[in-house]
Amino acid sequence: MLKDYLLPASVDEALQNLQAYSGKAAIIAGGTDIMVNMAEGKVSPEALIDISRIGEFKQIEEEGEFIKLGAGVTHTQAARSPLIREKALVLAQACREVGSLQIRNVGTLVGNVVSAQPAADAAVALVALEAIAEIADLQGKREEPVEELYAGIGACKVDCRSQLVTALRFKALSPNQGSAFKRLAKRKALALPMLNVAVVLSLKEGAFEWVRIVMAPVGPGPVRATASENILAGASVSPEIIEKAAAAAREQAAPRDSALRGSAAYRRDVLKVLVRRALQDAVSQAGGSL
Amino acid sequence: MSKLKVAFQLNDKDVALSVDPNDTLLDVLRGQLNLTGTKKGCGKGECGACTVILDGEAVNACLIPIMKVMGRSVQTIEGIGDEKNLHPLQEAFIDKGAIQCGYCTPGMIMSSKALLDKTKSPTQSEIREAIAGNICRCTGYVKIEEAVQAAAEKMRDS
Ligand SMILES: Cc1cc2nc3c(=O)[nH]c(=O)nc-3n(C[C@H](O)[C@H](O)[C@H](O)COP(=O)(O)OP(=O)(O)OC[C@H]3O[C@@H](n4cnc5c(N)ncnc54)[C@H](O)[C@@H]3O)c2cc1C
Ligand code: FES
Ligand code: FES
Asked: pTM of this prediction?
């Protein structure tokens, strides 16, 4: 049961609040995960520390070659940001798929990462962007790739009893680079992803310079389609090579039969199609021709 | 039970209350303030029946802890019109037959209002995005879309 609800105005104040409750308080950002978990009795903190009043957390900024998102940035903000739409389209597309507008208006990208669900839409796109999370505690700051924060289904390496994610940062894409997000779900809103795929790639002189493909839920967290990435790296852009890479993703993925998300056989077949379509979109954005 | 103090704007008036921090905005609206226009369907963000407008954006009141609205502005269905002065959206929902049982209607109207407050001439896909988080078991949505378009037109003309 909650006894208190705190609204700190700064990162330091929030960290001190966390320390004062020594593990018995929880951070709340948008609340769309933690409110459900509290109602179901999965967590029962004595206090909530609401980070929505920390001014700097609302910002989306370009910092040199990076784009930096404060920890309070919502899915709606990211989906509509002209900067993200231009230089990290995969993330805008992923955030647009989350829940419903009401959920996107309050739910944050950082909350999506910390909740560590296997197919969290924004997190899958952030892994493809090789995003870094900035993490603060009373001792100081550190940085960790979002990909490495996953510690199993629903488990995140950020220690929520003493640490705060303050921002996410990733490289803005340049004109020879492209990205795309594809998703399979039963309906267009409020539906669990049966599959999602994020692609970020770079082209150079008609060939793939590098490609990052992330697929979920086919493991405990987002999974890199490494076999497909290796097939594409250095290869000339062609429909055939894209088909081959998509087929390799199908072979690498090991989705489970799921009453909610569909059979493994079905999802592997669709996965191949989603990877192909994401690659095609990303190639054309990067100025490549197929 | 420890009570906390919360102050916010509700339908353009200042309110100050003593609340249980475990309550949601929806609990307080319905249980403490008797504003039962805002409905409770699922209680977990999946139906939109509890939609209210918080600082200009549609949100699910069932997922907002009451203390989160401290210092902010909340608008509910009670704040946008009454029997004598219907809001253009309320009129249009009646005129177009966009209401059957009515349970989803306050939420639908608040989602639509959040859209029309910002977007004078919404496209069909903008309307669909705005109301996709509101489930209606009766109407089939087509008449609701028509009602939102009709209200937008009326609001542009006035
Ligand atoms: C109806 C419904 C539909 C949904 N649909 C989708 C969907 O389609 N796709 C999807 O990916 N997700 C979905 N979600 C899940 C959820 O909305 C997202 O994961 C959202 O991004 C969570 O963000 P939040 O700010 O609301 O998190 P909160 O609930 O506020 O926090 C989540 C967790 O992160 C911790 N936390 C938050 N911020 C920080 C921080 N800065 N530092 C440290 N810890 C922090 C909290 O302590 C908590 O443990 C849905 C949820 C609901 C209720
Ligand atoms: S009651 Fe809030 S979304 Fe269903
Ligand atoms: S009118 Fe009955 S649920 Fe919409």
From this structure: 0.97
User: Which residue range(s) make up the domain with B96?
Assistant: 88-157
Residue B97 lies in a domain: yes
**Residue B109, ligand 3, Cβ within 6 A:** no
Q: Which CATH number does the domain housing residue B62 bear?
A: 3.10.20.30
Residue A240, amino acid: E
Choose, out of A101, A103, A104, A188, the residue to mutate when testing the contact with B (most B CBs < 10 Å).
Answer: A101
Same domain for A67 and A167? yes
Q: What is the pLDDT of residues B91-107, one digit of tens each?
A: 999 999 999 999 999 99
Q: Are residues B146 and B101 part of one domain?
A: yes
Quote ipTM for the complex. 0.97
Q: Strand order in A25-28's β-sheet? A: A4-6, A47-50, A25-28
* B107 → chain A, closest CA residue: A102
Residues 6 or more apart from B133 whose CB is under 8 A from it? A99, A100, A101, A102, A103, A189, A190, B48, B51, B58, B60, B111
The count of other CB atoms within 10 Å of the CB of residue A219 is 16
Q: Which ligand is nearest to the CA of B48?
A: 2
pLDDT of A219-256, one tens digit each? 888 999 999 999 999 999 999 999 999 999 999 998 88
Long-range CB pairs of B114-117 (<8 Å, 24+ gap) are: B114/B53, B114/B56, B114/B57, B114/B58, B115/B58, B115/B148, B116/B89, B116/B148, B116/B151, B116/B152, B116/B155, B117/B53, B117/B56
Which residues of chain A lie closer than 8 angstroms to B70, CB-CB? 7
Hey, what long-range contacts does A233-240 have (CB within 8 A, 24 or more apart)? A233/A208, A233/A209, A234/A207, A234/A208, A234/A209, A235/A207, A235/A208, A236/A206, A236/A207, A237/A203, A237/A206, A237/A207, A237/A208, A237/A283, A237/A288, A237/A289, A237/A290, A238/A290, A239/A290
CATH code for the domain in which residue B125 is found: 1.10.150.120
